[in-house]
Amino acid sequence: MTGRPLTIALRTYPYTSAIKSGEIKVDGAELDFIDVNPHIGAFRRMVRDLEFDLCELAPTTYMIARAHGVPIIALPIFFVRRFHHQGLVTRPESHIGGPKDLEGKRVGVRAYSVTTGVWKRGLLQNEYGVDIDKVTWVVDDEEHVDAMTLPRNVVHVPEGQSLASMIGDGGIDAGCTGDAGVGRAGAPGKDWNANAPVLPDNLTELFPDHARLDRDVFAKNGVYPIHGCLAIKEEHIRNNPDLGQAIFDAFSAAKAPYLDALKAGTATGKQAQKDLKLMQIVDDPIPYGLENNRASIEALIKYGCQQGLIPRSYAAEDMFLPLNA
Fold first, then answer.
1. 31-62 tens-digit pLDDT
2. Which CATH class is domain 6-83+224-319?
3. Most buried among 35, 127, 228, 241, by the most CB within 10 A?
4. Which residue ranges make up each domain of the chain?
């Protein structure tokens, strides 16, 4: 490749390590990897300032940015996958016996556009008939894309409080767990997870039988929620139309040995443990390609429209380069 290397902000996964080490190269390009800690900080630097040539982005953040004219486009490469019946906890004092009981309640999510929250609201609305406009969504962080307008039923936590403190004192009735809500302290920054908040021990999952429900819903609609997509400045695709395929092929090659190890039972580590559980439902826990992910992409676009995050519906090809394995 002539000219400067392409800067890329990307977390390290077992299926990206061979690219980050240089063992697998992108044909016709040189990648200059930049680590951002926590990586969520890279989201804002990309969609607000176009700081990187390529960046791993939350897919909802990416779709909102593209819909608002940020000149980036994503490749159908998804680094994180998970189902979403698990991870929405309730206070027993709020008397939430099922999804519809969330109507009229206050539910915490780090930011309205956080992808986990979008998937959970989509699940609640489309599978369980919850009127998400009758839920007050309480947030304690800013949105990545400045231009987006929040619905009227989104409110910020009072000064000096957090989602974690509010689920403890009853300020909210339910909340997303982990980084998407009550499981961390403060906005993303250095060591933001170093001191995880102590939560009440009587919180209960809204869907106790989440594993079975994940299997049932996937069998019905084929939606396997996407997280962590790879976005690139559009100018690079215009200037080099073959670049997208070259990047896709390199990431596919880096994934292949890891997938083989999972199937052989020789893969180890936390990521492998997660992926082996997912393989009880799906064949490939990290599928790449537009067609392999069409149902999931179209579902997230649909949910984005329903929730007022993007102004209209889009074809999958409007949001992702039409690359396939």
1. 999 999 889 999 999 999 999 999 999 999 99
2. alpha beta
3. 228
4. 6-83+224-319, 88-219
